[in-house]
């Protein structure tokens, strides 16, 4: 830049992945675990420009510019099941704002607490791949693997039920048996090739 030319700091092929404007307006990031995987939600709020931008997994879902009302809410959908999400924007004092995320009408914390009561999650590594298996709502017995709903076959057995499915050449099933204790309810166990897979905390 010695000759006073107007060349940019970055050549076209070297431009930064995020603009400086985006970095200064990014005010909140949430990771939300749904049956089809963990989704990243990012929210930009330009309090001087009135800009609101919502990204889900890096993809722009909502963009509003020149919003004169700086508080309010933005509603959008996340994941394969199109789960309803809402970002609430509240003024807490002067020019300070609070951003809260609701999933299906519940605070993210309450949603995740409820979800851990209604879903089971297992992570396993086989054939050089990682698999995230989720037993969705326990009343429907939907089974998801790496974001895709699997074809399953239910079967009644002496001590409960088994929900069978395949992962490649591997035979898998989720066994549901009563714990015998009212508070614990039904215990779900993932079996792959006759081997029990430990559950992770969801």
TrEMBL record:
<dbReference type="GO" id="GO:0005737">
    <property type="term" value="C:cytoplasm"/>
</dbReference>
<dbReference type="GO" id="GO:1902042">
    <property type="term" value="P:negative regulation of extrinsic apoptotic signaling pathway via death domain receptors"/>
</dbReference>
<dbReference type="InterPro" id="IPR010695">
    <property type="entry name" value="FAIM1"/>
</dbReference>
<protein>
    <recommendedName>
        <fullName>Fas apoptotic inhibitory molecule 1</fullName>
    </recommendedName>
</protein>
<keyword id="KW-0053">Apoptosis</keyword>
<comment type="function">
    <text>Plays a role as an inducible effector molecule that mediates Fas resistance produced by surface Ig engagement in B cells.</text>
</comment>
<dbReference type="GO" id="GO:0006915">
    <property type="term" value="P:apoptotic process"/>
</dbReference>
<dbReference type="Pfam" id="PF06905">
    <property type="entry name" value="FAIM1"/>
</dbReference>
<dbReference type="InterPro" id="IPR038513">
    <property type="entry name" value="FAIM1_dom_sf"/>
</dbReference>
<keyword id="KW-0963">Cytoplasm</keyword>
<comment type="similarity">
    <text>Belongs to the FAIM1 family.</text>
</comment>
């Amino acid at each position: 830049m010695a000759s006073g030319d107007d060349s940019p700091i970055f050549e076209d092929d070297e431009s930064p992945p995020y603009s400086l404007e985006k970095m200064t307006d990014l005010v909140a990031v949430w990771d939300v675990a749904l049956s089809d995987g963990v989704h990243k939600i990012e929210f930009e709020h330009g309090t001087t420009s009135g800009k609101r931008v919502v990204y889900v997994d890096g993809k722009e879902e909502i963009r509003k510019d020149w919003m004169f009302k700086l508080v309010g809410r933005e509603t959008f959908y996340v994941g394969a099941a199109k789960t309803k999400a809402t970002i609430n924007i509240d003024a807490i004092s002067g020019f300070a704002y609070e951003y809260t995320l609701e999933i299906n009408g519940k605070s993210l914390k309450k949603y995740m607490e409820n979800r851990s009561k209604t879903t089971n999650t297992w992570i396993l590594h086989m054939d050089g791949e990682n698999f995230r298996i989720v037993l969705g709502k326990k009343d429907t017995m939907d089974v998801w693997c790496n974001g895709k709903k699997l074809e399953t076959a239910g079967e009644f057995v002496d001590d409960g039920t088994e929900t069978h499915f395949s992962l490649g050449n591997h035979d898998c099933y989720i066994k549901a048996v009563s714990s015998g204790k009212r508070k614990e309810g039904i215990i779900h166990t993932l079996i792959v090739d006759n081997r029990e897979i430990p559950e992770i905390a969801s």
